[in-house]
Amino acid sequence: MKNTILFFSLILLSTIAYSQNGTVAGTVLDGNLNDVLPFANISVNGTNTGSTTDFDGKYNIKIEPGTYTLSFSFVGYQTKEISGVLVKEGQTTNLNVTLEASAGQLDEVLIKTTARQNTEAAVLSFQKNSVALVDGISIETIKNIGVSNVANAVKNIPGVSVQGGKYVYVRGLGDRYTKSILNGVDVPGLDPDRNTLQLDVFPTQIIDNIIVVKSSTADQPADFTGGVVDIVTKDIPTQEQYSFSAGLGYNSDFHFNDNYLKQDRSSTDIIGFDNGQRDNPLATNQPVPLPQQDPELVETLTKRFSSDLAAQQDQSFMDFNLAATAGNQYKIGDNKLGYLASLSYRNETEYYDKYVDGQVYRKSDDPSVYKLDADRTQEGRAGNNNVLISGLAGLSFKTDQSKYRFNVLHIQNGESQASIFRTIKRIDANNEVKKDNLLYTERAITNLLFEGTNTFNDAKWTLEYKLSPSFVNVYDKDFRVTPFRVRQDQNGNEYFTIEPSESGEPTRIFRSLEETDLAGKLGSTLKNKLFSYDAKTKVGGAYTYKKRDFGVTQFAFPTINVPGTAYNGDPDQVLASDNIYNADTNSGTFVRDDSNASDSYSSEITVAAGYISEEFKLTNWWNAILGLRVEQFGLSYTGTSQSRGTYDGVKVIDKTDLYPSANLIFDLNEEESSKVRASYARTTARPSFKEASLAEIFDPINSTIFIGNIDIQPTYINNFDLRYENYGEGNNFFAISGFYKSFKDPIEVSFIRGAAGQFTPLNLGDAKVFGGEIEFRRNMGFISGLRNLNFNANFSLIDSQQSFSTDELANRRDNIRDGEELGSHRQLQGQSPYLINVGFTYDNDDNGWQGTLSYNSQGRTLQIVGSQNIPDVYTLPFHNVKLNISKSFGADRNSSLSLRFENILDDDTESVYDSYGSPDVSYSKWNIGQKINLSYTVNF
Q1: pLDDT at residue 155 in the model
Q2: What is the pLDDT of residue 118?
Q3: Contact of 520 with 542, CB cutoff 8 Å
Q4: What is the pLDDT of residue 114?
Q5: Do the domain assignments include residue 489?
């Protein structure tokens, strides 16, 4: 009942007209120093209305509806008049302006221009005035595209792609070489297998913009190569804002399917976490004896485990999502206090009836044989339910000389998976295994951010500081795998047997990852004079502390004195009450502790950094930014293995390095609409916690093992960039870029030679990457009747050359095919040879219609480096075509209805083995289906 009242209250509020006035709001930027311009004056010509920008360069003017001319001025800067500013009743007209320093520093120059309402204008202005090479996407553009999370949004940025729907690649380089940060500071990821942040957990409702920095400056972290992806959450609004949205998604392959697979749900699964029913039923450090040691205790302990081991068949439901935001700002004397709150909920279901994953194929010992031999094939059905809840709350306090902000972000994610696989080991053609797999993963991240900025001496000196602790928990709760060997009788009928030596034993795994990060930054900016021009000196430091604890508890459930044909292939019978081990008969299924000390570890990382940079002009058209950063990186490890013994807080990496950077910007005309950028920087890529370890982590579904490498070392990269930019009228833009990167000791994950299904990270031979990017944005108004249509396209072409290590070269020579030429290098792991983004956007303010048709694809990418007679694995191109149509309506256009179509081409996601002379053979393959989303949003 309460929910019903709330819903109708929101609908009622959406129809209320709050004011007869309209609003003009935006940001005034300092085009000379690439910064915001506080305390600038704004006046509305012909009226007594005006305002002054606040500490962040923002302004807000309420005025009666009409068309006005606005004047922007600041002492020592050219005054800019903007005419034709249309103000509508109850609506906000967004207008960002850049002021340039006047030639004589005090002379006033009048420039008249016409305001253009453009959703990408703010990002283009930021990009134009940035000291580094950047690209970005604003929330307005994200809304036009119609995507629901950050991972889908960043794919529209030039040179950016996303792997697995979660992990961002910049310039075709893998997630190892891309750094994801939140509001300018480090945050931990939610996936222990990755080096970067999982982006699909960030809903677009909490985002202001996404900025990708592609060239380094001294104040940026040193551990990136492709780019730094900065997710900027919503700032406190300058006026009252409320919104509510709801959506439904339908996929004909996934939803209302009676064959959908699931596991038993807990009562709290629907809100993203398990209520405890999947917890380990045995106490920590509980000894688990064998039956011959203490049969009564074994019986007692075994009975504590639930008998639910089978994937259950059910009907799947549609996807749905909800989101609400609220914010406002109030005057307290001469100061301002604001708040922001946002809450979003997403529930998505997937089902794959022809899911192929983790297959193993080998080359023949005969080099004249090109066809790959199947070592193990694996395919089946899989169901997945993903629940995501995110909440953001923030307070902001502003004075004339300072600003303080405190944010709390919490993301809760619960993912339930159920699958049934058939695995055939071809070494013995009769060895077929059926496995029921159940997995529930609970992820949570809480990020606190306190940031402050203070200005002194009329904003000539600025002090900025940030403190951001983060807390992450990732729990794999009761990972259940129940295998049966499949046999056939004389009539060809299947029957199932329990044969541990051939199919393995029923297994239950409980894994926990707990990580605490503490990141802090302090920076000072001083405006000064150098060579008779305005200059800017930056000095600062940063410190990051990370601690991760990873633990694995594993149990096996063998049988004793039970016929091999028992249970008839039904996993739920394995631990049924009648089949649990009985101490009196000494028969049945019992629990055995199979945990290994090498599965668990604890690690700490520290990064201490200091930097200094100077931004200055050599002439009025040549801007330079020179900087030097120093970082001390340390990684301490606690863990054990049979081969290397025990490490107790041993510092396995301790490096202090210098990272110089230089960015040059050449303005080719007085309007600064054409620029050439050139940059150099030294950066690094560091191993993750798991990689710099002795850990041996087993995946029972794919039967693969990841083995850490305690001797792994960081990679060092030299980066060179050259870019030409041309900013046309309004939204028109053209850029062409070239880049070159050289890698020393790159880290790659490789099959272990002679051990199928085992992977390890290695420092391999040196590598280099070079390529180019072209971006083009054009309003189609030069064609009659198409002024509301915009075209955008970007294309990246990239080549990489990874030199073979001595071991890899020998391995490839041993397995070369007749007629194959080996060469001295191969493609860099994770590097895509090309990226394509093309789109048309229609936006009509007069009738409220918007639409976007987009295409995204990337080239064939090396996923896993082969070893011995196992070939390389490549990810094939995925051709993604999306269409989003929306209509704004209502008296103030406060409501909108959107319809989105995804994967229109119905393409597959596939990785294949690549071997000379052989057709591609699938390593993994599934079809994500075609999805339709309908959503409604109201702002009031």
Answers
A1: 66
A2: 31
A3: yes
A4: 34
A5: yes
What pLDDT is stored for residue 580 in this prediction? 95
Residue 504 lies in a domain: yes
Residue 79's Cβ-count burial label (10 Å; 0-12, 13-18, 19+) is: middle
* Regions of the chain where pLDDT drops below 70: 1-20, 32-35, 55, 75-76, 101-122, 138-152, 155-156, 159, 163-166, 172, 174, 189-197, 205, 427-430, 700-703, 751, 753-757
Number of domains in the chain: 1
Residue 853 inside a domain? The answer is: yes
pLDDT for position 905: 94
Q: What is the per-residue pLDDT for 32?
A: 61
CA dihedral sign, ordered 31, 34, 39, 42:
positive
What is the rounded distance in angstroms from the CA atom of residue 727 to the CA atom of residue 128?
8
Whichever domain contains 349, its CATH number is 2.40.170.20
Quick one: pLDDT at residue 107? Answer: 38
Task: Quote the CA–CA distance of 803 and 321 in Å, as a whole number.
Answer: 47
Long-range contacts of 290-295, Cβ-Cβ distance < 8 Å, separation of 24 or more: 290/592, 291/560, 291/581, 291/583, 291/586, 291/590, 295/581, 295/583, 295/586
**851 closest CA partner among 901, 778, 785:** 901
Answer yes or no: is 503 within a domain.
yes
CA dist., res. 799 & res. 827, Å (int): 8
- Relative to beta strand 227-233, strand 588-589 is unpaired
From 404, 390, 407, 394, select the one nearest 448 (Cα to Cα): 407
Q: What is the pLDDT of residue 820?
A: 93
Alpha helices (H) in 15-51, listed in sequence order = none
Q: How far, in Å, are 411, 744, 844 from residue 714 at the CA level?
A: 31, 9, 51
- Do 567 and 574 meet the contact criterion of CB atoms below 8 Å apart? yes
Token pair belonging to 663? 């960015």
Percent helix, strand and coil across the chain, each to the nearest 5: 10, 55, 35
Helix (H) or strand (E) holding 8: helix 2-14
Q: Which domain holds residue 584?
A: 312-939
pLDDT score of 831: 78
